[in-house]
Amino acid sequence: LMAFVSHMGTSTQCGHYVAHIFKEGRWVIFNDCKVAVSSEPPKDMGYLYFFERVHGHAETA
C-alpha cells in the first residue's frame, strides 16, 4: 500500500476527500493546502487504495 483516499465528513453529501501517501518512510496527509505527518492514518476508512507492484515476485491468478 503506497497511498489511499478517504472521506472526512458526516456523509457522502457533506465533507471532502483527503489523501494519505506513504512517503520517505512515514504517512503524510494531504488535506487541501495543509500537509502534515499522519501518525495513525485511517487505512480501514479508505475509498480508493493505491498499491505498487513489487517486481521479482511470481504473479498468481
TrEMBL record:
GO biological process: protein deubiquitination
Organism domain of life: Eukaryota
Domain USP: 1-54
InterPro entries for the chain: Papain-like_cys_pep_sf, Peptidase_C19_UCH, USP
Record GO terms (molecular function): cysteine-type deubiquitinase activity
Pfam families noted in UniProt: UCH
Protein's name according to its UniProt entry: USP domain-containing protein
